């Protein structure tokens, strides 16, 4: 697992992550840090006609809800770039049958991308979770499907790509910002198997961290 510490603060980290993401089919996570990256990505010369965007995870909430990752994705990226609706694959978390919706999402991923994403963009919680893999949750042991329903996690049910689906990605990027994340970045780089993010494969995984988040993980 490769750690790259980006100097210059959050804006420089976002710019570096945007360049890293450009020109690839990818899946994106939610949270506050990716929003700045999405804005930076929107101004790059990306051939959007060749790009498909997927979600790593999503909260079960109504369309347009501020807690939805899709809401922020639309605001900070999709509304700013010329990408066709059929190339944006959002998790249907408003379906009454979430398990069926999860199966459809997995089927769509297989049909469009043969189940393999070029890049999977992830975050890292201070509890060691990534995607929507809560600490102690059996979702990290799911191997027979690419999408699962999880919850409640921090008070909300979620839909998430599973460990096999994420680890089939050609490149994995974990984007981390802030001093509060420094202890968990150190645990991830050290290979602490007690945290959910330890289920990410080591080969082909890059951790992009600002100076505050990455300082404790360097000698």
Largest sheet: 7 strands, parallel
Query: What is the straight-line distance between the termini?
Result: 15 Å
- What portion of residues is helical? 25-40%
Q: Please give the count of helices.
A: 7
What fraction of residues sit in β-strands?
A: 15-25%
Our count of domains comes out at 1
Q: Uncertain runs with pLDDT below 50, 5 residues or more?
A: none
Overall number of strands = 10
By CATH, the architecture is named 3-Layer(aba) Sandwich
Shape: globular
Q: Order the strands across the largest sheet as they lie in space.
A: 1-10-9-6-2-3-5
Walkthrough of the structure:
The strands form two sheets. The chain has a seven-stranded parallel beta sheet. With 219 residues, it is α/β, with parallel strands linked by helices. The chain contains seven helices and ten strands.
Question: Helix and strand layout, with pairings?
Answer:
Blueprint: E1 2-6, H1 10-21, E2 26-28, H2 32-42, E3 53-55, E4 57-59, H3 69-76, E5 88-89, H4 98-113, E6 119-122, E7 147-153, E8 156-161, H5 163-167, E9 171-176, H6 182-190, E10 205-210, H7 211-214
Parallel strand pairs: 1-10, 2-3, 2-6, 3-5, 6-9, 9-10
Antiparallel strand pairs: 4-8, 7-8
Helix pairs in contact: 1-2
Features:
single chain; 219 residues; alpha/beta; Rossmann fold; seven-stranded parallel sheet; three-stranded antiparallel sheet; 30% helix; 21% strand; globular
């Amino acid at each position: 697992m490769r750690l790259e510490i980006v100097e210059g603060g959050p804006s420089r980290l976002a710019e570096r992550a945007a360049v890293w993401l450009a020109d690839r089919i990818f899946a994106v996570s939610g949270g506050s840090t990716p929003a700045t990256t999405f804005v930076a990505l929107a101004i790059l010369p990306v051939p959007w006609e060749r790009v498909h965007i997927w979600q790593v995870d999503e909260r079960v909430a109504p369309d347009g809800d501020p807690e939805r990752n899709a809401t922020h994705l639309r605001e900070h990226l999709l509304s700013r770039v010329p990408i066709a609706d059929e190339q944006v694959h959002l998790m249907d978390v408003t379906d009454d049958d979430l398990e069926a919706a999860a199966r459809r999402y997995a089927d769509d991923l297989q049909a469009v991308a043969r189940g393999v994403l070029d890049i999977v963009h992830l975050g890292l919680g201070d509890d060691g979770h990534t995607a929507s893999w809560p600490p102690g949750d059996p979702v990290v042991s799911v191997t027979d499907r690419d999408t699962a329903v999880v919850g409640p996690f921090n008070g909300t049910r979620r839909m998430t790509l599973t460990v096999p689906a994420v680890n089939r990605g050609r490149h994995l990027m974990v984007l981390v910002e802030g001093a509060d994340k420094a202890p968990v970045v150190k645990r991830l780089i050290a290979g602490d198997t007690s945290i959910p993010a330890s289920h990410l494969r080591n080969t082909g995984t890059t951790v992009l961290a600002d100076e505050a988040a990455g300082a404790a993980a360097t000698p």
